[in-house]
Amino acid sequence: MQKAVGSKNLTMCGRWLLVICLLPTAYCLLSSAAHAQVVVDKTVATVTNGSRAIPDVITYSDVVWQLALEPSTPFTAKPSSNELNRALRLVEDQLLILQEARKLPTADTAKALAERDAEVTKRRNELGQAFGSATRLQERMMRVGLTSEQLDAILRDRVMVDQYLDFRFRAFVVITPKEITDRYNEVYGPQRNTGRIVPTLDQVRDRIEEELRVEKVAEQIDKFVDSLREQPGTEIVILNPV
Fold this sequence. Notes:
Blueprint: E1 2-4, E2 16-18, E3 38-40, E4 43-48, E5 56-59, H1 60-68, H2 81-101, H3 110-131, H4 134-143, H5 148-168, H6 177-188, H7 201-230, E6 235-238
Parallel strand pairs: 1-6
Antiparallel strand pairs: 2-3, 4-5, 4-6
């Protein structure tokens, strides 16, 4: 359920807000209370799935960070309303997934924490490569006031969400031989007798299987997020439209 109200109706800790943001990787997440990054910022929305007494808060900075951390999105000091609303929708959706992920018990052993830290480092390196270099990523972060500590918090949540999606969807997706053959014929069939070199099915089988898996998972995630938005207890309150 989604509704809009005036910011004067928000009963929270004044204007001291906890940061939440979601990265694309599909997706991007900046953590909330666990990381205690407190900022004074314009409140944009609150999101809850009914599992917590206090909803998570989305600030204007969170929406801007979402755009800034998308390698395919050109940086602009004044994003358009369409871009801001697209980013806000993504932040809302991803935060709902994060709230579901929080329901699962986590392993906080020394080994598990070390593995998570290693994964965060890997994700940060991958993000730097997506921007062309770690320096370019750092420059983009500086332009929107995003610190290294906040980025690490984002990536920790991204790991948490990906692990949840693996548990919920990816591990159970089945791709049949017929689906692989049908996709092969669809893509490469028209290329026969054109003078082009056409790979055999065996040569591209693994790639096609992975493409189909990604598509199926994305479709299931879309349906899952829609169900989260509609489930009893979910409330997305727009306090200041972007």
